[in-house]
Specification:
- This protein is mostly helical and 123 residues long.
- It has one domain.
- It is built from four helices and no strands.
- The longest helix has 40 residues.
- It starts with a helix and ends in a 14-residue tail after the last helix.
């Protein structure tokens, strides 16, 4: 019986830590997708979409180096991948639809009021 209590406590503490890691991964994935949309919008001269993507980043993402790096890296990758090929750019309606989807995703993962209390992710 003396061994079951410490084991039970360890199991109870490990559960939330694993769930938190999954939450951070989901947030980083959403921010990466937002960065990709931003980069493609910049390459396609969709400045309104790019501005809205950056506003979503500022409004929802925790203000830490890691989150900013993910956004900037994905922006750069998408910008370079799009190249100067304006004929391959999505329509303004498609950009708007993707932006709406990402906005809802970010709102569900990081409601506006919670970004200041997020724990920073260390490298």
């Amino acid at each position: 019986m003396s061994r079951t209590l410490p084991l039970s406590l360890l199991i109870m503490l490990a559960g939330p830590a694993a769930a938190d890691a999954d939450g951070v991964a989901a947030v980083l994935a959403a921010i990466g997708d937002l960065g990709r949309l931003n980069g493609q919008a910049l390459a396609c001269s969709q400045m309104g979409t790019a501005s809205q993507a950056k506003t979503l980043m500022i409004r929802h993402a925790p203000r830490t180096r890691r989150y900013g790096e993910v956004f900037e890296e994905r922006t750069s990758e998408a910008f370079l991948a799009q190249g100067g090929d304006l004929t391959a750019c999505p329509s303004a309606a498609e950009f708007s639809s993707r932006l709406d989807e990402l906005s809802l995703r970010l709102q569900s993962l990081l409601p506006v009021g919670e970004t200041a209390t997020q724990t920073p992710v260390t490298r």
